[in-house]
Write a structure and sequence with these properties.
Rossmann fold, globular, 4-stranded parallel beta sheet, alpha/beta
Amino acid sequence: MKVIILNGPMGVGKTAVGKYIAETTPGTAFIDGDWCLDLHPFIGNRETKTMAVDNILHMIGNYKKCSECKMTKYAHGEQMIGLKSAQIHSPIFQRWTIRSIQVTFRLKKLPRK
């Protein structure tokens, strides 16, 4: 299974790009990093970041067990770079950095399958 991590600054469109790819590529799961650390009130310390990474790794592991899932996309902000390729245990691992909101607007204009 291919694992791609989308990272970049807040508001650049990581979630929009991840959702677009998931919607247009059959067998793709999308994990939004915000879901994995949805704590109210938000507390960003070592313990909560470790918990979020653990949540993400478990989700990726579960998707890897599913025969229908061919690719997993995970989007997160630059402040959450605690995930390392060695932790994911996937032969195909890529990290994409999105730096421009223009990429998101261009993708939204593309026809959906």
